Amino acid sequence: MKNKKLLIINTIICLALLTIAMPVLSACGPQEHTGQTLKVGIMTPTTGPAAEKGVPLRDANMDCIQYINDELGGVNGYKIEAINLDSQYKADQAVANIKKFTDDGCLFFTTSSSTEMGYVQEIANREGFPGLVAYSSPSNYHPPQHVYGQMPDYGDDWTAFTQYYLNNIWKGTGKPKMALMLLNNPTGAGAKNAARALADQLGVEIIATLEHASTTLSEMDALTQIKTLNPDVIYISSTPKPAAIIIKNAVDLGMYPKVTIGVCHAAMTKALVDLGGADVVNGVYGVFPTIVSWDENVPGVAKMSEYATKLHPKDVNNGDYVAAWAQSLVIAEILKKALDAVGYDVLAKGDKAAWEAIEKYGFQGLDGYDVGGLQSPVKYAAGDNRLGKSLRINQVKDGKITAITGWVEAPLIKYETFDWFGK
Amino acid sequence: MDQFGQYIITGLSVGMVYALIALGFVLIWKSSSVANLALGQIVLLSSWFTYSMLVQVNLPSYIALPIVVIFAVCLGWIIERFALRPLIAQPILSLIAVTLGIGYFIEGIITFIWPWSVDALPRLFPRDVVHIGTAVISQQYLWVIGICLVIFVLLTLFFRYHKMGVAMRATADDQMAVQACGIPVTRVFSTSWMLACVVAAIGGVLISSIGGITHGLVDTGLKAFSVVILGGLDSFVGALIAGPIIGLAESLGGGYLTPYMWGGVRDIIPFIIIIIVMVIKPYGLFGEKRIERI
Amino acid sequence: MSLPCGIRNYNYAQDMAIFRTKTHWTLLVCFLIVVFTVPLYFSNYWLGVLNLIGTTIIAALGLNILVGYCGQLSIGHAGFIAVGAYTSAILTNRFEMPFLVGIISAGIVAGLVGIIFGLPSVRVKGFYLAITTIAAQYIIIWVINHWDLTGGFQGISVPYASIGGLVFDNDLKQFYLIMFFVVLAVFFAKNLSRTKVGRAFIAIRDNDLAAEVMGVNTLYYKLLAFFIGCFFAGIAGSLMAHTTYTLNAEQFSFTDSILYIGMIIIGGLGTTLGPILGVTFIRILQQLLIVTIVPWLGNTFTSLPAGFASGLAPMIFGLVIVLFLILEPRGLAHRWALFKAAYRLWPFSY
Known about the structure:
Chain A folds into two domains: 37-152 and 294-388, Response regulator (Rossmann fold); 155-288 and 411-417, Response regulator (Rossmann fold). In chain A, 45% of the residues lie in helices and 18% in strands. Chain A has 14 helices and 15 strands. In chain A, strands 6, 7, 8, 9, 10, 13, 14 and 15 form an eight-stranded mixed β-sheet that branches. A five-stranded parallel β-sheet of chain A has the order 2-1-3-4-5. In chain A, strands 11-12 form a two-stranded antiparallel sheet. In chain A, helix 2 crosses helix 11 (301-311) and helix 9 packs across helix 10. Chain A is globular. The mean pLDDT of chain A is 84. Chain B has 294 residues and is mainly α. Chain B has one domain (2-215). Chain B has eleven helices and two strands. Chain B has helices at 2-32, 39-56, 61-84, 92-113, 139-161, 163-173, 175-180, 185-211, 216-231, 236-257, 265-280; strands at residues 129-132, 135-138. In chain B, helix 2 crosses helix 9. Chain B starts with a helix and ends in a 14-residue tail after the last helix. The model of chain B has no long low-confidence stretch (mean pLDDT 83). A two-stranded antiparallel sheet of chain C has the order 1-4. In chain C, helix 3 runs parallel beside helix 7 (171-192). In chain C, strand 2 and strand 3 form a beta hairpin. Chain C contains 14 helices and four strands. Chain C is mainly alpha-helical and 350 residues long. Chain C is globular and about 60 Å long. In chain C, 71% of the residues lie in helices and 3% in strands. The chains are: A alpha/beta (423), B mainly alpha (294), C mainly alpha (350). Chains in contact: A-B, A-C, B-C. The interface between A and C is large, with 54 and 51 residues.
């Protein structure tokens, strides 16, 4: 009966393995919280296609948290423990990251870009895990649920620029003709949706909506098409490299500087000046939701410059660094408001009740925190998940991006009321 | 009507950029039957190295550019020696997969050394445009066209008349027979990879002076595949002619079809052309038909 | 397969059996018990990783049938997964159909799209076919990005999967759903190689001209291979859609297609165990690198240059693929077979 004996031995071995393995495998279970810290999950695209923005964003997030912990003693005495994970700008990694955040007891999470938030927003919304996105797009929080935007989105960029153009630059009668050059992703879609919602109301005529890929080498054909329609203004909602190519092509075709060109905040950075050449992009308008130069005289710049020079000197004068530094300041303010309202014990559990408290008293409790002047003040209004609502219009002058207006508020557009806005 | 002229000029010039990358691909295929899917990353690495020589080390361009060529030669030798030589005579899937792995690895190296992955080369060509009739073309594109033609002529002559060039063609055909004739196959592979990397480096310098150095160079490499397929995988003439054809198709298709279809038609045209070519004429316009025997 | 001493096969059924001895059956049952009970103790993050591994295994099995068994090189698999995912999402979101209808239709629609893009396989092969599948991937993604029905660039949200009244709304329930499909897929793929269809595939892979001469209808079987491979991809896509609740074309990029090819090569082509091992290995390597090793390096060695940690992941990845191909071109499955043989024969090496 050798077979039976073998069978019994095998069964015993398997059961023994199972019982031994259980405690080992439970180490993969949810971890305990240690120490008195406030945990926040920070997701940045430090490798992959968006690494050029992801690295300064990560640097600034972590530098500012270090500043808050070291010099300010944390928030109300509790240190912030920031868990930074790289999303690689990919969906499956972003989804895995957000699960890690919830497992580790984070109170809320932040992402840098609208795309990353787009990957995880359904999961966050269905679980009630609040999130803050730096560079947002209307689809992230329309209809408004648990995702909040730190700064105005790409749709607000378009609205603010168009309003400025109509009030200050357009000198003719009737409606100016605008052509939209859009990147083929939510950056471009944000501007397209805003234009679709508000163009008639503001008084512009959209004569062409053309899209391009971020890998384009030449937009001559698109611009040639537009040239025959005689536009007065071109709005580019894209990243610096394609925007630089479009502007260069427009100069080659003789369209610029006759036509006004405005770009969204993704493109209004030093990279645009470098890639295009200072003489080519001179006079281009653009919006930006934070300060554009580290020489500006606002209170928040001093500490930011100090830490950047000390820890990441290559990031000095980088625009994304400002946005993420501001994000960490907003993180601290949210934690402070929630701590003041419900105390540490509720938040320490890191569970659904903690998330609700953070959202109700932290996010929705913000009322005009000025973020050191680095960006528009953050304030929550019911039905509007944009925490920062104002932008500034800037212009490239002599190779430097300079602000030409103060903080202008962009109006709320309720995209969810339009039936063409996808679900 | 001037639109039409502008579309033609733009299409031809962008197409020549694709042809330049395609030449590098065809070179490796013609000499070792390996599909080099890491070509985009090699182009990107060479562009970054050029940037580093010109901007970080601040050499003048007449010293920096020869150094870039030497770098490309070394890169080709390293890739061939360490990644491809162990895989001689393996099935084609392994070779393709190894080039994919090399591509990933090079991307990692690029992030490692230049973590801020976007930048611009200093201006190598003057900015003024040249007018052809009512159409305009920037001087960078004229340089691209010129250098592409020069490389094409040199490569064709090399493969037709030079001893090493003929040996390369023989190796692509039948490695065992070549070894039986006493030609060192390993040296042939090394030379072909070194040459291909030099062509890729030159292409990289030209393309990044047009659009800056970003990760998107890798995707431009993919568009070059459509050129390679249309022209035939083992034909330089094919690459040179198919490049402008694809560029023209993109430009004209994008210009005239966009109002009638969904936006962004231009990006998909090269891939539709691939499918059409596959169904009608699988070996491309100038490729050699493979005859198989059981 | 290699059997212990003393076991003889007396008929065809015994010869072809996958689980021949009682030991095999016992181990199988114990393994299934372990797989279905241990994750009860896992955290959300690891369950999420297991779910991802599960769906990737289904897709990789499909690709293995196409590439490993039938020899049709396809580097556009992510596109077919996208077709399945979007079909299921559209049917459950826009047309309010039940989940089971959605997942089966996802498989069928993906299979049909696979047949359409697989038509060139009857004229070309090798690298040419690979380029065609790359083109297929880009065309599919472009259509998804521009069609209103699929939500354009914004993407589409996907409701929870639900069968009868049971709603799969957390990671644990989704784990059981996915594991069920994984077991089915592995069973199907393993048995495929024992049937007439499987043998036809292998004949085509080894030499399709000879197969045609012998009477194997290559047109039919090549298209069937595309259908089956893409059917698996469609099922995997549908499961992916219902576990991430939102779909965007950027989730199905060309890099992912390359990743699938890498996974099945590292695992071992032409075996059923290969994709499972390859997928598990690569996914766990990815998670370890990004979540554990890179932050650890960043914290302990803060004076490293900025790009070190972030460049490390792709570098190690590429290096692993290259080293595997140089040192063990037949993949992890072959290593496992050698290990089993060594275990069985030790200390006698004949």
